[in-house]
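Comment thread on ticket #2218

A.B. wrote:
> Attaching the input chain for the structure job we discussed in standup.
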Amino acid sequence: MRPLVVVGDVLLDRDLEGDVERICPDAPVPVVDERHTRSRPGGAGLAAVLAQADDRRPVVLVTSLGRDAASEQVRALLEDRGVRVVSFDRPDPTPEKLRIRAGSQTLLRVDSGGGARPPRRPTPEVGSTIQEAAGILVADYGRGVAAVPEIRDTLTAVAGRRPVVWDPHPHGASPVGGSRLVTPNEREAGLLSDVEGHGLAADVARARALRTRWEANGVAITLGEDGAVLVDASDTPLRIPSSSLGESGGDAPTDPCGAGDRFAATVAGLLTNGYLPTDAVTAAVEVASDFVDGGGVASVDCWAPEVSPRERIVRHDLDPVDLAGEVRAQGGTLVATGGCFDLLHAGHVQMLEVARELGDCLIVCLNSDASIRSRKGPGRPVLGAEDRMAILRGLRCVDAVAVFEEPTPDRLLRSLRPHIWAKGADYTLSDLPEATTVAAWGGETVVLPYLEGRSTTELLKEMYRDA
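C.D. wrote:
> Ran it. Output below, let me know if you need it in another format.
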């Protein structure tokens, strides 16, 4: 079965849910006590997930993703929901939108990432995917995918042969001529047209003006809880009321986030399956209304628990210095420790586990073989650096291992710039010259508990004595 193809800009949406029980003592603002933070695909990613949930046909998302942690997380979330992702390169990180919510109300939204540079030239797979679609939904979020010339040329070529539904954005590209249906909301229609006024007559006038401007077969303006207005080739306006919105919530607040994506995804799926525009829009109004009544995006089964910076970054398989930079960029806490770790024993493991709990990522600075020989004599190390690295990397608490050749890890620490330098309690701060180095960028040096009687040197003495 040929797929429904969603084309557009992807975001990473995150909701921080909490409780408000007091006002900040130093400013007249509510204090949110965080319960949890969850992440989901946003923008065209949400539209693709909603279309996939309809289970009418396979869904493919054509988008532009960067090489950052947010892009990787969005891709994983989409693929987990059964959406195939066809991506071309984006020079900037994927945009992130964080909503801070309490009691079903959004208190604040914080946007980050995105940049201003347009996506790079799409791959041949992008064009062939669009050409092979049974139907197409363009979910334009004004981030450049729908404005790419090669994509627009392909959409224009298929618009006469396949149903193209275009969900526009005030800062996005104009729909290609021949689109089966364009679906702006009331605010977008007002910004995109020159028609002033309020009420049904103004909405119909806007729909007609935009249909002419865009050379579209039809324009459906969504009106929130008032339903939608459709003007198609007959030029007879159809006003579709909503009968379900508010039935479940009464005076309780509702979350309209994602309602436009729910409407557009439903229309696109129905038109692709042969429905008339009037029937598709009528059904989509009810589906979108039920979607808002049911809790909006919070009801969509595409959430993932928020993960630590380490869990978002480790999949990149970066070297230790790059990993350290990613952790800092994500706002995480970087912990480093160091030592020989020759014949790893329980004391080592306990110290490493405690060190990892201090932050979001633990990098072990490992003495090279030559460095150990200079300190402990020609019989050491027992295990070479490659073996010691492999054993340390196998521990769940260790995120990366970096080898240093010098007597101390001072030079390596200057590259890593950890927030915390941790050593076992068999050292004191006065024994650690690295403490001064770490303090230069505001880092802290700490000593950690060490199991009594655990020592590689003592283990070797016991082995030689028994031999």
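A.B. wrote:
> Thanks. Noting for the ticket: The chain has a mean pLDDT of 86.
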